[in-house]
Amino acid sequence: MSVIDSRTTRGTPDPHGPARRSAATSSVALIASAIGTAATTYLFWVVVARRDGADAVGAAAAQIATITFLGSAASLNLTDVLARFLPHAGEHTGRLIGRSYLAAGCAAALVAVAFLATPWGSAASAGVGVVGFVGLVVLSAIFLIQDGGLIGLGKAAWVPIENVTMGVARLALLPVCALLVATSGYAVLAWGIAMGAAVVALNAIVLGRLAPRARGRPRLPEPRSLRRFVAVESVNTAVTTAVATFLPAVVTFSMGPRLGGYFYVPWMLIAIGTLLLSNVLITAVRESVADPAAAPSVLRGQLRLEAALVATGTAGCVLLPQVPLALLGSDFAQEADGLLRWLGLALPGTAVLLLFWALCLIRQRPWPLLLVNVAVAVCTLGAVVAWGEALGLAGVGVVYCAVQTAAALAVLPVTARWLKPMLHPHPPEKPGGEAS
């Protein structure tokens, strides 16, 4: 990737100021989105836990985790594709978004039907039925993609509005759905209705107003190259989400709903932290692609923000693990504080892996990332499936922390080698071979 020195002399306007400000604005918006999502999701599970206990949390969380995993796997990683390529889509913006939704929706329906044939299918569809389960997986796939569309369109500031509004709607729907469904399925129903409303409302604006306004000649890769990139990235997403979203369901199915309930809330908190870190980096990807000359300045700012978030998150999880768990009940604080500590200690390793992911995305190099993700998924899920009951909740945290740290150390040399020339590019040469 071609970049130039972003430094300016005193009194000279900074040519990369707009890119840095855009990155900063997008980062703040996405951080606000993650925090708002965390707050409303946390309160959602507090209500369920206080009303029905850890067993209900575990059962409902396993269903939601399964739906989210299948939707994410079926999304074909088009979230990152839209964030990466929409800035160059021009007049094909609406077509790219529409085809992405269609592809993800069809894939989601297929994987949902296939999952219903597994031994876990009946538990995953309990309370919502077969049609409802398939519909929720399709909605989940489209919901996950649409944030990438907003980022690619330069509308990241809309993401927190969407996610916080949906979170508030979920909370408001809980008592209504509890009157309609006697089991823990009322939580799944509230979650699904709010998500469906968000998909319909947002895409009425995106496809009806924002996409038609895009102008200019498309500057996308050749169709064959783009299809190959999407194919590899879709496998990447399926492998990554096997850990990120399906692990709570695996814990519940192997250890029982009670321990699954204790596991889910700490895992959700770490997932929100991971979302914060990935949002900061996807903003750097978008701005670096849209304005390659500004990449050094943008990346330095985003990395400083990333480091601050990692330090804060790790310290909070290690030093004060019982604070976020106490509201759910004293049993949550007693059973899950050790788990949250270990998950917090994994955040530095996770941050390195996410940086590696962002650099692979910028460089359009999905294969190295796929190899790393496969190794992480196999080691993490394999250990939990094989030794889940013997490990206990804290043991699952130890396994996760060890795998994340080992994978981060493995990719660190490559990450540093790729990052160095992007942060400190060689200045362009003047005519005659003299450096500027």
Mind sketching the topology for me?
Elements: H1 17-52, H2 54-74, H3 78-85, H4 93-116, H5 121-124, H6 129-152, H7 158-180, H8 185-213, H9 223-244, H10 247-255, H11 257-290, H12 295-319, H13 322-326, H14 330-345, H15 347-363, H16 366-423
Helix pairs in contact: 1-2, 1-7, 1-11, 1-12, 2-4, 2-6, 2-8, 2-9, 2-10, 2-11, 3-6, 3-11, 4-6, 4-8, 6-8, 7-8, 9-16, 10-11, 10-16, 11-12, 11-14, 11-15, 12-14, 14-16, 15-16
Write structural notes for this entry.
- The protein is built from 16 helices and no strands.
- With 436 residues, the protein is an all-alpha fold.
- It has one domain.
- α2 (54-74) packs across α6 (129-152) and α3 runs parallel beside α6.
- The chain starts with 16 loop residues before the first helix and ends in a 13-residue tail after the last helix.
- The model is unreliable at 1-11 (pLDDT under 50).
Shape designation? globular
Q: What is the gyration radius calculated from CA atoms? A: 22 Å
According to DSSP, the number of beta strands is 0
Mean pLDDT, to the nearest integer, reads 82
What level of helicity do the residues show?
over 70%
For the record, the count of structural domains works out to 1
Q: How much beta, percentage-wise? A: under 5%
**Continuous helix count:** 16
What descriptors fit this protein?
Poly_Biosynth_Transport; transmembrane; cell membrane; Polysaccharide biosynthesis protein; disordered N terminus; 436 residues; 0% strand; 16 helices
